[in-house]
Structure formats: structure tokens, C-alpha cells
């Protein structure tokens, strides 16, 4: 039998004795120096090292290192979590309150934009720097007085963009206040309170009727 010079064929007895020799080498290492014993993994032990029967007994030919790790892209189910808070019924119709600091910042920014436009216009016309400062200060004071007189100007929801959430919330509150005043609804009115009062009156009449029957 002729074989390629780059390959050798191991005799059958050597294949049979190889696991036994590995076991003897391992036992000798453990006996001589247990803390620094060699870690020799036999095929049977490799299967036991797999995690929950997931993995390979040997990484040879798999194109991987054989290291088993959890799937980081797996999302855990959250069925146990409540989709809404327990008091959802009490807050579902609550209006979103705007941030007063953000509204104040936007009002000041609107004033400064107009002042900057005036300054840019006067600089293009070649007006003296002191005169520009005086006119800008006068315009700033005028706009601030107008906002103070109108209470901030009350944003109009039709002219607002979708990203202006605080301005939209303020406009919605102003609209609700106007509607409440027009209908004569009190500020402490709660949704469904009218039906609750009717139900209370009905229960009171039933209790009076029951007391009359007993008498």
C-alpha cells in the first residue's frame, strides 16, 4: 500500500491505546502537582461541558471557537407587566401641563429674534452702533410690554408645529378654559359627576322608600 509522503496512517493498536495514554498522563499530572495539573479533555468529557446540550463537542471544522454564550438580541417577554397604571381611569382625560420655563424661554426667544432682525437691518443701512443699540433696546421693551399686557400672547394652535408640544398644550388649555367659561362649567367639575349625583339621589330615594315600608 503506497501513501502520499505528506500523510501517515496510524496502526489500529495505537488508536485504541491513545485514550488510555491520555488518561494515564492526566492521572500522573494530578498526582505529581494537583494545583498546576494539565487540563486534558477527552471526547466523553467534552460532551459534559456543553451548556444545556447546546454547543459542540469539538470546535474542529465548525469555523468557531466553540464558546457558547447567551443570545444578546433575545428580548424577554414582559407579559407580567401592567400596560397601564392602576389609576389610569383617573388620568386618562387629564390635560398635559406645559412647562412654564420652556414657554418663557420661547417668548424671550421670539422677542430676541425680532430684535436681531432689526439690528441686522440697521447694520446693513450703516446706522451708527449707539443708535442701533438704542433702537434695539426700545423694540425689546415694547415687545416685552405687549407680551405682559396680553399675558404672553396665547399661542394659536393653528400656527404651531407638531414639535411644539408645550405650546400646543398651552393652547389646548386656553381653548378648554374658553369653552368652560362659555358653558358656565365650574373649575372643580369632575367628569361624570352629574351622573354620580343622579345615582346618589336614586339610592337615597330607595332608602327612604325602604324605611317607609318598614314603618
TrEMBL record:
Q: Where is the CWF21 domain?
A: 103-148
Which InterPro entries is this protein grouped with? Answer: CWC21 (IPR051372), mRNA_splic_Cwf21_dom (IPR013170)
Compartments, record wording: Nucleus
| Keyword Nucleus belongs to the record | yes
Q: Where is the composition biased (Basic and acidic residues)?
A: 86-99, 164-180, 187-215
**A Pfam family in this protein?**
cwf21
What family does this belong to? Belongs to the CWC21 family.
Recorded hits in PANTHER family, A to Z, give:
SERINE/ARGININE REPETITIVE MATRIX 2, SERINE_ARGININE REPETITIVE MATRIX 2
What is this protein's name? CWF21 domain-containing protein
Which species is listed as the source? Answer: Hortaea werneckii (Black yeast)
